[in-house]
User: Fold this.
Amino acid sequence: MRTFTINLLGVIRYLRPDRNPLRRPVDRTHARAMIALGVLFLVLAPLTVLVTARVAGGAGARAERLQAHTRHLVDAVVIDASPTGSRGVLDQAVRIGWHDAAGAGHSAVVPTAGGEPVGTHRSVWIDREGRLTSHPRKHSQTVADSIMAAVTALTLIALLHSAARTLIDRRLERRRIDLWEREWAAVAPRWTGLP
Assistant:
């Protein structure tokens, strides 16, 4: 806490107007710009994280509701244990068949862990048209996506803050060097005796 207080007092001393001939207006401008950037980051970062998390969470919740209504778990039966294209242990596949809500029959080749004989029952997810699909979106996936979106937004804001700070630092440093060279050109003949 003591270090923070000392640093804060140093910033206050640096910003206040004084008669120090070594402190130029460009130095005060630089300090004020850094403080303004810091305050801007402290205001924008939480707002960006909150808005991003809400937008991503809302989109995920809508997807959860939609998929819960449009995807159904049905019982499928293995109808062929050796379809073409099954070459090795890691890519074994079986053909399964199922009926959709209207009673229409469907079939597809799906991966298997191996050893599923004809007649084995499996549960699969289908969409409204009866096609195979993945299971409905889980709420944990929505939460994870919201957190990831918020972290990404915070990272982008931090990168923009860093880029702005670097740009301001470089421009003001160039200005400081130009001022220093002008002042040295005016003072050097008096100190060195050279023209």
Observations:
- The helical segments are 2-15, 25-70, 139-192.
- The longest strand covers residues 72-80.
- The radius of gyration is 34 Å.
